[in-house]
Amino acid sequence: MKKFVIFVMFILMMVGSQVMADPEDHLRLNWERQLNPTQCDYVGSPVINVTYRVINDADSGEAGNYWAFDRLNRHLQVWLQQDESYCVLVQMEGRFDAVAGQRSPGNTGFLTGSEDGSVEGGYRAIIHGALLSNPTWPTRGNLGTLDYQCDLSGNCPGAVSWPAQYFAAGYSFDYAWWGWIYRGEEDATWINSSDGNSGDVISSETDD
User: Fold this and answer.
1) Helix, strand, or coil here: 135?
2) Phi/psi at 20 (nearest 5 deg)?
3) d(CA 164, CA 49)
4) 57-88: per-residue pLDDT in tens?
5) Which residues on adjacent β-strands are paired with residue 79?
6) Domain regions of the chain by residue span
């Protein structure tokens, strides 16, 4: 009987421990593993390996509204794969500036504008198509800064499609994975990922 009681207590402790760990687990995003070249079936060195900076990029949340403007450093790598498709890895890190009065990205309240913070992550994609023999952009080095000039309606007259700078018309582009982790006020965290969303950049729920 004692063995049974001890076993039950052990199970309850394990379950309780898991429940307590869950709130922390959803605040982590292993984007480094997803954006690693080992995720690609690549051949040789990357055919494109560039960095550039984007400013004034509008960021959208779970409610469908635009809630912040981002300034991000991007590292773009493109690898030729065994099947002659291209594996794309785009890593991003930078800052977001929250806009007062907008619905929060996790849709739990409204922003005061003081929730500015950091963001990191990116995406992995597959491109089928032909590389341009004379691409518009260099295939190596730092490309400088792009000002997207976005507004809160999501209009971005300065945005540029990077694949169109390197690939001939008719290419296809498919996301394999994407995700970002945002850290706002008082370490409040929002995860926005193809694996699911969780959290928010505000520290507590705000009344509507």
Assistant:
1) coil
2) -65, -30
3) 16
4) 999 999 999 999 999 999 999 999 999 999 99
5) 87
6) 31-199
